[in-house]
Structures are given as structure tokens and as C-alpha cells.
Amino acid sequence: MSKLTYKELLDAGVHFGHLTSKWNPKMAPYIFMEKGGIHIIDLNKTLACIETAGQAAKNIVKSGRRILFVATKKQAQEVVSDIAKELRMPYATERWLGGMLTNFATVKKSIKKMQNIDKMMKDEAFTNLAKRERLMLSREKDKLERVLGGIADMNKLPAALFVVDVRREHIAVKEAQKLGIPVLGLVDTNSNPDDADFPIPGNDDAYNSVSMIVKAFATYIEEGLQERKVAREKENLEKEAAKKAAVDAEGEEAAEEKAAE
User: Residue 253: what pLDDT?
Assistant: First the structure.
């Protein structure tokens, strides 16, 4: 796996924090210096934190569990949704629907409703509905898809959340904390790193910075998924070998019994 370098982070502007007047004192361990009224993030700490959070994510997906990506700020929406789709992980990038975790049973009903409308719209009977009724159903489907489309195949709670800007996504973070779901998150100098179980200090406002961090994080998930695939293939081969050995043993036993007669 290709590792990020200090220079790559520097070139992407990951080190740029917020104005010193807007800082959260709990971010002090991750700040290198102050320059021109701006806090500069210690990129060595960023590299170490990406490794720690990445390994945690890798272990989660290796066990067959899933990570929910959360990023509703404009500069993060596209890259996060694209990467989550590639990884086949659930995501929330339009807006966080209150209770998405803590009231998941109700959310699942809304997902089911969205799927039923989609199925209905593909049916011939849909064309026989009044134009106004068709329009209302289409609008409702679009509205549900914007909010729930990224979690349409999430049939149970995620094992962890990956959050871009824990300060902005405080509702999602609080819900995860309430349920004991670990949070892996990108934290800027105006954020509280304690809100993430695995904080990654970095610029969460610039597209290049967010893109680099998310893509680096994704490589750990890809590696975990690949290792899980290899392990499952090995397990299936071992089962087939054991089954064949059992069949061969039965055949030999039957042949011996016949010979004995």
C-alpha cells in the first residue's frame, strides 16, 4: 500500500488550520505553530493519525462490518460519495437526517417506502395514474433518495462512522456516541478532537486537503476488503477439500466393506 508523504500533505494544504482566534484549545497537541494569525497543523501528527485510524478501519471491514461515511459540506460531498460507492460503503452527503442511527427502525421504514415507490414507478400501472399523482410520487422519491440514497442497502447499524468535520456533523457524532459506535474523523483546529475516537488533524475546508485524506483513508479499507476476500476464498477451498476428503473416505470404506464380503 502506497503511503502518504509529508510533502504530499503539504502540497495539498492539509496543514492550514483556522484563525488563531477560532481555535479549540484541545487541538493544541496537533498544532505545530502559528503563522500570520493562522494555526499550522503538525503534519507528522496527521500522518500518524491517518495510520492509526486507517488500521482501525481496515480491521473493521476485514471482519465483514461496514463504515458509514458522513460529509455534508459542499467541498467534501462529491469525493466522499464517489469513494464510498467504489468501496460499497454507505454514505450520507446531502444532509444528516436526525435519528439516522438512534431511530434506525423508522429510517428503515422510509428506505422501504422509497424502494416501494421506485418499484411502483417501473410498473405499467404507474402510467395509468393521474399526472398530478405521478408527479407527487416522483417528487417524494427524489426527496427520499437525496437523503437516504446513500444508505439504501444499509440493513443494520454501521460498525463505525468516518466523518469529515466533526464540528459540522455534531448531530451524527452525538448519535454515534450514544450508541457506542466509534467515530473516525477529520478534525480542524476549530474542532474538539475528543469528539472522535480516532481523530485525524487536518484542513477540513479545502477540497484538495479533504480529497487527499479521504483517498488515503480509503486505501486501508480497500486493503481490508481484499484481505477479507482472500481469507474467504481460502476458507471455501478448505471446506471443499474437507468435503472431498470425506467423500473419498466414504468411498474407500464402502470398497473395503464390499471386498470383505
Answer: 67
Domain of 130, in residue numbers: 103-149
For cell 471446506, the residue is 239
pLDDT of residue 102: 96
DSSP symbols for 138-160: HHHHHHHHHHHGGGTT--S--SE
Grid cell 499550522 — which residue? 40
Residue 157 has phi, psi (to 5 degrees) of: -60, 145
Distances, alpha carbon 14 to alpha carbons 18, 222, 242, 257, in Å:
12, 23, 52, 75
Which three-class secondary structure state does DSSP give residue 234? helix
pLDDT in tens, 215-247: 999 999 999 999 999 988 887 887 888 788 777
Which residues are CB-neighbours of 162 under 8 A, at least 6 positions away?
57, 67, 68, 69, 70, 184, 185, 217
Query: Where residue 118 sits, what CATH number does that domain have?
Result: 1.10.287.610
> Between the CA of residue 91 and those of 3, 29, 40, 47, 168, what are the distances in Å?
25, 30, 30, 24, 16
Work out whether strand 160-164 and strand 67-70 pair parallel, antiparallel, or are unpaired: parallel
Eight-class DSSP state of 206: S
Q: Is the pTM of this model over 0.90?
A: no
Are 88 and 145 in a shared domain? no
Distance between CA atoms of 182 and 178, rounded to whole angstroms? 10
Q: Which of 34, 57, 36 is nearest to 161 (CA)?
A: 57
Residue whose C-alpha is closest to residue 205's, from 187, 183, 184: 187
